[in-house]
Amino acid sequence: MWNDRNPFLQGPYEPLYNEYVIDDLHVEGRIPLELNGVLYRTGGNQHFQPLDPSLFHWFDGDGMVHAFKLKDGKASYRNRLVETDGLKVERAAGRALYNGIYGHGGAPQPSIPEGAPKIKVVAGVNVIGLGKRLLALHEVGHHYWELNPITLETLGSFNFDGQTEGMLTAHPHFDATANEWLFYALDNEKKFLECFTTDVNGTVKTKHRVVMPFTPWNHDFTFTAQHYIFFFGLINWRPWSEDRIPKGKSSWFIDPQESRNAKILFVDRHSGETTWLHPEDSEYMLGHFLNAYQEGEDVIIDASVTPLCGELQDFKPENYYPFPLVEGPSAFEEPQLWRFVINRQKGVVEHQRIGDFSAEFVRPNEAIQGQKHRYGYMAAVHVPSPTTKGFNCLAKYDYRTARAQFQHVSSQYDLIPGEPVFVPHPEAKYEDHGWILSLWYDPVRNASELIILDASTFDGEPLARIKLDHHVPLGFHGNWVTI
Ligand SMILES: [Fe+2]
Fold it and tell me: Which tens digit of pLDDT belongs to each residue from 430-456?
C-alpha cells in the first residue's frame, strides 16, 4: 500500500499485484447450464507507485481486465493489465512517470522519454466485444486496445481504420433493432463532437459532426430510434491541452463564467440535424444512462443523476467527482435514479426522482436499448448501516409497477456490489428472462466473488456464488460475450 490515507489505494480499491490463471473455481450453488460465455470486467489498477500517492484519483489507475469464463456449469478466471503505450514507457523506466488525467499531479509533469505519449491513457473504463474483437476502452484516447479474448494479451490498437478523429467514447451502445453500434468521438481542442455508427464488426457506416460551443467532460450518451442524446454538465475537460496535465492540473475544471445548468443535445441519427435544449434549474451531473425511447411526442430517458446541492455546490472535480475522498458512506448516496420526460419540439424538460435509494451503474436488458423498457438494474445504497462504505446492494426497478427489489446477498454485513450486467436467456421469452452477473467485494474475506442472480426473481437466493481468494478492485464496466 502506497498511501494509507488515500481510499483509492486501499481496501477494496487497492490495486491487485498479481495476474492469475485459475481453472475450475469454487462454486456455491449452481451455474445455469445455458450460461456459456465470458464476463469481462475492467477497472483501474495502478501498477507503479503514483508520483504523489496522496493525490491519486480512482480513474487514473492502469486498466486491468478480469475475465470469468462460464461453460457447462464450471467457471474459470484470469486477469491481465492492458499494456498501453504509457504503461510500456513506465515499465521501461521501472517506475511511474505520468501525472494523472482526472486527478491533479500537484506538480508539473516530469520529463518523459523522447517519443513517449504526452499523457498516459489507461484503458480502464470499459471492455466490449465488437464482432470477433475484444476491445478495452478509455474515453481520452484516439484508439481502443484489442485484446486476445482468451489470454487477455494486448494485441495492439483499434481505431476504425483511421476513419474517426477525437477522443473515442468508453460507452458505445448497440442498437439491436437497427443491428448497429453507436459511438461518438469528442475533440475539445478542435471543438467538435462526431457521432458515428458501425456495423456489428466495427466498419463505419455513418458519421455526423457537430461543432461544439464549449469543452465538456462527457462520459455517456443514450439513443432512441431517431436520436443520439447527450447531457452536458458543468465540468469542462481538456486532457490534450498544454495548459492542464503538463502543468500538474487535472484535465477537469469548472469555468465560473459558464452556466451550471445542463445542456442537452439531440443529434438526428439519419440527417445529423441538431437540437439544443437549455433547461433552467438543472444543476446536476448525469453519470450513466439506463435507456431512452420515444413515446408519442415525448422522449423518456432514465439515468443516474447527481444533483449539485449541499456540499456538492462548490466541488472540485479532481478531488470530488464522482465520489469525494471522505470517510463514510455519504459519497455513494449522492447519485439518484431519475426519469426525464422531454418534448424536444416544445423545448420542455421535466424530471422526477425514482425511488428513495441511491443508484449508479444503471443497466437495462440491452437487447431492447432504444425501445421501451420495463426494468432497470443498478448498484444502490439502500438501508445503509453506519459502516457502509460503498454501494450495499443491487436494485431492480420495475417502471410498470413502480416497485423496487433489492439484493443484499448477506443480512449479516454489507458486501459491495459492482455494476450488474444482464445476460438474456438464449431462448428469452420476456424482458427479465435471464441472469444478472455482478462482482461483489466481501470486506470480511478481503476477496471478491461473481454472483449470478435469476433476473426474474431478483431478490431471491443467488443461483451461484463463484468465489475468488483475492479481491478484484472496485472498478467500472463490463460486458458478457457469448461463446
Ligand atoms: Fe462509465
Answer: 999 999 999 999 999 999 999 999 999
pLDDT at 320: 58
| Alpha carbons 73 and 63: distance in angstroms, whole number | 29
Distance of alpha carbon 363 from alpha carbon 378, whole angstroms? 6
What confidence tens digit (pLDDT) does each residue in 273-288 have?
999 999 999 999 999 9
Q: Which CATH architecture has domain 7-482?
A: 6 Propeller (2.120)
Residue 197 has pLDDT above 90, yes or no: yes
Q: Are 417 and 382 in contact (CB under 8 A)?
A: no
Q: Secondary structure of the chain in the HEC alphabet?
A: CCCCCCHHHCHHHCCCCCCCEECCCEEEECCCCCCCEEEEEEEECCCCCCCCHHHCCHHHCCEEEEEEEEECCEEEEEEEECCCHHHHHHHHHCCCCCCCCCCCCCCCCCCCCCCCCCCCCCCCCEEEEECCEEEEECCCCCCEEEECCCCCCEEEEECHHHCCCCEECCCCEEECCCCEEEEEEEECCCCEEEEEEECCCCCEEEEEEEECCCCECCCCCEECCCEEEEEECCCEECCCCCCCHHHCCCCEECCCCCCCCCEEEEEECCCCCEEEECCCCCCEEEEEEEEEEEECCEEEEEEEEEECCHHHHHCCHHHHCCCCCCCCCHHHHCCEEEEEEEECCCCEEEEEEEEEEEEEEEECCHHHCCCCCCEEEEEEECCCCCCCCCCCEEEEEECCCCEEEEECCCCCCCCEECCCEEEECCCCCCCCCEEEEEEEEECCCCEEEEEEEEHHHCCCCCCEEEECCCCCCCCCCEEEEEC
From ligand 1's centre to the CA of 221, what distance in Å?
10
| Per-chain mean pLDDT for the chain | 94
d(CA 35, CA 193): 38
325 or 462, greater pLDDT: 462
Distance from the CA of 72 to the center of ligand 1, in angstroms?
A: 31
Tell how far the Cα of 448 is from the centroid of ligand 1, in angstroms.
Answer: 21
Give residue 217 CA to ligand 1 midpoint distance, Å: 12
- CA of 220 from ligand 1 middle (Å) equals 7
How far, in Å, is the centroid of ligand 1 from the Cα of 345? Answer: 29
Distance (Å) from CA 363 to ligand 1 centroid: 11
Res 224 pLDDT > 80: yes
